[in-house]
């Protein structure tokens, strides 16, 4: 997100995509994310990913 806020939206998008490819998949039940053996670090990554996606999507809509 700091890349995006620094005016490097393309780099931010590429980094977000690459990071998601390395993450464990999102849980089927978001209300119980640890049920499938995830650890707290997975939850942090999922939340950061969701936040980054929302920021990039909002910026994309504002450009149009």
Number of helices: 3
Question: Whole-number average pLDDT?
Answer: 86
Principal-axes geometry comes out as elongated
Uncertain stretches: none
Give the oligomer, counting copies of the same chain as homo and different chains as hetero.
Answer: single chain
Write down the domain tally: 1
Ends: how far apart?
20 Å
Largest sheet: none
Count of individual beta strands: 0
Which structural class do you get from the secondary structure elements? mainly alpha
Estimate the helix proportion, in percent: 55-70%
Layout of secondary structure:
Layout: H1 2-5, H2 9-22, H3 40-63
Helix pairs in contact: 2-3
Provide an overview of this structure.
66% of the residues lie in helices and 0% in strands. It starts with a helix and ends with a helix. It has one domain (2-63). The protein has 3 helices and no strands. The model has no long low-confidence stretch (mean pLDDT 86). The protein is an all-alpha fold and 64 residues long. The radius of gyration is 13 Å and the shape is elongated.
């Amino acid at each position: 997100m700091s890349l995006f806020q620094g005016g490097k939206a393309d780099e931010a998008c590429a980094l977000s995509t690459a990071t998601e490819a390395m993450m464990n998949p999102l849980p089927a039940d978001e209300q119980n994310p640890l049920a499938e053996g995830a650890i707290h670090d997975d939850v942090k990554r999922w939340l950061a990913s969701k936040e980054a996606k929302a920021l990039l999507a909002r910026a994309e809509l504002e450009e149009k």
